[in-house]
Specification:
271 residues; alpha/beta; Rossmann fold; 4-stranded antiparallel beta sheet; 10 helices; binds adenosine-5'-triphosphate; ATP binding; ATP-binding; ABC transporter ATP-binding protein
Length: 271
């Protein structure tokens, strides 16, 4: 059984905005990247999966449970990091984590370990926390009850590179422990380091679902240049960080996400 699935999921906000006929699934134990530029429809999709929005057409399910009809159970069980985190500002971080554990009725078995890992002291008032601290609190809140399914909407926004790396490590460990994860992101590198498959969304439509391996190949593009002499090739290779073989130099360039998107939207003529 698919752990997460959408079938023809549609919400039309008018003017071409929204999500349209989205069908995809995430297998049990899979970490699936949901990759798309700003405004593509990632958060709208996730809000349907969490049961915050009722589908106008189509449906979605988690663990075989309809996300709208069983939204209370889904919201209680899942680990969820919203795209824009807003907490009850009059609580301390510790109070919020306690409140959440009570609401879920599940022990926060990983709370201490996660607070240590992300170097967060939760005793202060949420109102005074920096954006990064709030993001860390959101991470602890999502993972503290050790959920089997996690829905993460741009979870590293606001984290510094060190903490982003720690988060990537956490995701890899969770994948190894058999968790099912949907990770929305607009950063290819984050998805590349954590996911097995990726769905690419743009303008509310799923442009492609592909393995990370295939996507990586598109991301790293090689060019071979032939110079007049091996000496010139050597100097060229030095300047551009290429691999020299006689008069030939192979240079590998990273493509931007936009260029990768173009490949998928353009139907392959950019090869
Ligand atoms: N309640 C709403 N009413 C009208 N339009 C909306 C509403 N919510 C979202 N939209 C529009 O739907 C589109 C998709 O938005 P969404 O937040 O799902 O994108 P996203 O992929 O999560 O983007 P980002 O990476 O910027 O968070 C956007 O054009 C947005 O302006």
């Amino acid at each position: 059984m698919d752990a997460i699935s959408t079938k023809g999921l549609t919400r039309d906000y008018g003017g071409g905005k929204g999500i349209f006929d989205l069908t995809f699934s995430v297998g049990e134990g899979e970490t699936f990247g949901f990759l798309g530029p700003n405004g593509a429809g990632k958060t709208t999709t996730i809000r349907h999966l969490m049961g915050f929005l009722r589908p106008r057409a189509g449906s979605c399910a988690i663990g075989g449970r309809d996300c709208w009809r069983e939204r209370e159970n889904i919201q209680r069980d899942l680990g969820y990091i919203p795209g824009e985190i807003s907490f009850f500002n009059d609580m301390t971080g510790a109070e919020f984590l306690r409140f959440l554990a009570g609401y879920r009725g599940q022990k926060p078995v990983r709370q201490k370990e996660l607070l240590d890992r992300f170097e967060l002291d939760p005793r202060g008032g949420i109102k005074k926390m920096s954006k990064g601290m709030k993001q860390k609190l959101g991470i602890v809140a999502a993972f503290q009850h050790d959920p089997a399914v996690l829905i993460l909407d741009e979870p590293t926004s606001g984290l510094d590179p060190l903490m982003q790396n720690r988060f990537v490590e956490l995701l890899r460990e969770e994948t190894a422990r058999g968790k099912t994860i949907l990770l929305s992101s607009h950063m290819f590198e984050e998805v590349e380091r954590t996911c097995q498959r990726v769905g690419i969304i743009r303008a509310g439509r799923l442009a492609a679902v592909d393995s990370v391996e295939a996507l990586r190949k598109r991301h790293l593009r090689s060019y071979t240049v032939t110079l007049d002499t091996p000496e010139r090739a050597e100097s060229f290779a030095r300047d551009f960080g290429g691999q020299q073989d006689g008069c030939r130099v192979t240079v590998t360039a990273r493509q931007s996400l936009e260029e990768i998107f173009l490949h998928y939207y353009g139907g392959g003529e950019h090869d």
